[in-house]
Amino acid sequence: MAKGMKFVLNRKGVRALMRSEEMKSICSEYARDIKKRAGEGFEMDTHTGKNRVNAMVYADTIKAKRSNAKHNTLLKAVGEK
User: What mean pLDDT do residues 53-59 have?
Assistant: First the structure.
């Protein structure tokens, strides 16, 4: 970077980007992939918070909860690609 150059982050712009429908679509796509790899009994949800879009995948059935507790199913599904 050249001397005298200064980078100033546009916080409002970043917040708008992180809360946008495009970001929600990207997060939903990642969550769908993880849900698919985790298998049956897992669900996903997305919502827009104060600063950013959030996506989560969770065990919805007793069988999935047991599998996740015993085999770390969600952690392994996140790590796969």
Answer: 97
